[in-house]
Design a protein that fits this description.
Chain A has helices at residues 8-24, 31-42, 47-50, 68-79, 89-93, 98-109, and one strand at residues 3-4. Chain A has 114 residues and is mainly α. In chain A, helix 2 (31-42) crosses helix 6 (98-109) and helix 4 runs antiparallel to helix 6. In chain B, helix 3 runs parallel beside helix 10 (338-356) and helix 7 (201-216) runs parallel beside helix 8. The chains are: A mainly alpha (114), B alpha/beta (437). The complex binds flavin-adenine dinucleotide.
Chain lengths: 114, 437
């Protein structure tokens, strides 16, 4: 299991990098970055069924670490009522914009699987 | 500082809002991180809202000092107590402890009751006499009952006519009474007016008790006396009752004199609005409710007995720095469900972490799914997604809703299977319980 160690040193290094990147990148808070950050917030709702970080293996499938394209295609299919056998997911997927669904797919694809 | 296992460094930074999609932000990080590090958050209540809030505060901001105050060492969930009453689940399987929160996430857990809140000094007083100070306070105390508001129904009456609306001895008492009831007896459930904990709860309860009686005491009868004229997932419940139990369950809406005004627990009798007296062999009264008492003592509840909150963060509109989540809040159109308490907790944990880091709270979105089991292999759901629109909570248009009426048996069976999986999922997310552990 990976660990984090938020020591002052790590923070200082992170800040250094941030400084460098902020200088070279004209618009750090691009819409894409804000959306990714937001996805990390709204994605936490999914954990109430899929387990923390979407990793729990039950009759409800785990979603962490699955390919982004697959997750995205499934979410879009749910939203468009094109997923045979679906139960509650179409009703939930309709509550999110297309951009949010894409950001959610990316978020979970980047998490390590169980 | 402590290492938090189970979270990749990248994810922690990202959750903190430091890392976006592959980019680094926040030039002023070291200063903000220091103020975050010294901050103390106290969470009152280790149920669905509080346990989740404590865990996610540590996930979002590992350097925070997070203390969870909860008198019970083992928490028993209301969700699935109806399955226990129906004989489908043993009671111990509904219990969860706090070891994962302490050992894995670094939450300090204090098994005491919060008795008072001093908002000037930012301190809470515990039942043991000690005080805890806080920079931010989170309250998720669930509900308390308005004893006596329903004439004749107080704490003493509940020993004879249980509410079983908090999981524990009351739930087991109701089960024992059902086991002792003669075949041919009458079970009466008295359902309250809105708002109350778990809108589909009374209807799932009579379903599960119908399952038990149909199997064990087939000559018995169920009467559901309701203070309302409509209820959650009504069409689906009615359909499922007819299919599974014929006319075993009789629902009496308010307009047909279903509203109970007086309870005589000694005689197991109730009297309705128009003076009809019903006698039960087992009487289950779900009384009127309000936010857990600590909300009133903290000055965050209003005259309704519930807590008004800022919709974006769930910070109290009355006392800054106190955040309230779960059943205690006025959060309509969100229902008072464990799922909602869990999702509110995460959005609020994130808002608190952002606030302590000097950042704006995120634009929130909350989801909910309430599963109900009508019979073994027969599940139904209501789902919703919520956001803030023009400063108010609302359900996102054209989303959410209930399972389709008239769906085939395999659809109902899938939702029953997913209900069990949901329970495992939310127990994992809230207390870190592993299925089968
Ligand atoms: C029969 C029934 C079935 C249900 N089924 C479902 C379901 O299937 N799905 C679903 O999502 N929801 C369901 N619910 C609803 C769910 O139980 C609640 O919505 C949920 O518990 C709310 O979470 P909470 O954190 O607000 O309160 P709780 O989970 O009740 O937690 C409150 C905690 O705070 C503690 N506390 C209170 N006051 C203090 C104090 N002063 N100091 C310290 N600690 C304190 C209490 O001991 C308790 O542990 C059901 C409810 C019932 C009654």
């Amino acid at each position: 299991m990976k660990q984090i160690l938020l020591t002052a040193g790590v923070l200082a290094v992170a800040a250094l990098f941030a400084g460098v990147l902020v200088q070279s990148a004209p618009e750090p808070e691009s819409g894409e970055v804000v959306l990714a950050d937001r996805a990390a917030v709204i994605a936490q709702s999914c954990a109430a069924c899929h387990g923390t970080e979407g990793r729990l293996v039950t009759a409800i499938p785990p979603i962490a670490g699955r390919p982004e394209a697959v997750l995205h295609a499934q979410l879009v299919a749910f939203k468009k009522d094109q997923m045979p056998g679906a139960t509650v997911m179409p009703r939930l997927a309709k509550g999110f914009t297309d951009e949010e669904l894409a950001a959610l797919a990316r978020y979970f694809s980047e998490l390590p699987p169980e | 500082m402590k290492a938090i296992p189970g979270i990749s460094r990248r994810e922690a930074l990202r959750l903190l809002g430091v890392v976006g999609a592959g980019s680094l932000l926040g030039a002023a990080l070291p200063l903000k991180a220091r103020s975050l590090g010294s901050a103390r958050v106290v969470v009152v209540g280790g149920g669905f809202g509080g346990a989740t809030a404590a865990k996610y505060l540590k996930r979002f901001a590992p350097s925070l000092d997070v203390t969870l105050v909860e008198p019970q060492r083992r928490f028993y969930t209301c969700p699935f107590t109806n399955l226990y009453l129906g004989g489908l689940r043993d009671f111990e399987s509904l219990g969860h402890d706090y070891r994962q929160l302490t050992d894995h996430y670094g939450v300090t857990v204090v098994h005491e009751r919060a008795e008072a809140v001093d908002t000037e000094r930012k301190e809470i007083r515990l039942s043991g006499g000690a005080a805890l100070s806080w920079d931010r306070l989170v309250l998720s105390p669930g509900i308390d009952f308005r004893w006596g508001e329903l004439e004749g129904y107080d704490e003493a009456a509940a020993v004879k006519a249980p509410h079983a609306w908090k999981a524990g001895p009351q739930t087991m008492l109701l089960r024992r009474q059902l086991e002792a009831m003669p075949d041919g007896g009458t079970f009466i459930l008295v359902a309250p007016d809105n708002p109350f904990r778990c809108p589909p709860g009374p209807y799932e309860r009579v379903s599960m008790i119908a399952h038990y009686l149909r199997t064990e005491k087939p000559r018995s009868k169920i009467l559901l006396l309701d203070a309302k004229d409509s209820f959650s997932k009504q069409g689906l419940f009615m359909e499922g009752w007819k299919e599974n139990y014929g006319d075993l369950i009789e629902w009496v809406p308010r307009s047909s004199d279903g509203r109970v005004l007086r309870v005589d627990a000694g005689r197991l009798e109730v009297e309705t609005e128009f003076g009809e007296i019903h006698r039960a062999d087992v009487l289950n009264v779900v009384p009127p409710q309000k936010a857990g008492f600590i909300a009133e003592r903290a000055g965050v509840a209003d005259e309704t007995g519930w807590v008004p909150v800022n919709p974006k963060t769930f910070e109290s509109t009355r006392v800054p720095g106190i955040y309230v989540i779960g059943d205690a809040t006025q959060a309509a159109p969100m229902p008072k469900s464990g799922f909602v308490a869990n999702t509110q907790a995460k959005i609020t944990a994130r808002a608190i972490a952002a606030d302590l880091a000097g950042k704006a709270p995120p634009d929130p979105k909350w989801a909910n799914t309430c599963y109900s089991l009508i019979a073994p292999g027969w599940g139904i759901t209501v789902a919703g997604v919520y956001d803030v629109h023009d400063g108010n909570l609302r359900e996102v248009p054209d989303s959410g809703g209930v399972s389709p009426l008239g769906a085939d048996r395999s659809f109902r069976a899938r939702e029953a299977t997913y209900a069990e999986a949901w329970y495992a999922g939310i127990a994992h997310d809230t207390w870190g319980t592993r299925p089968g552990a």
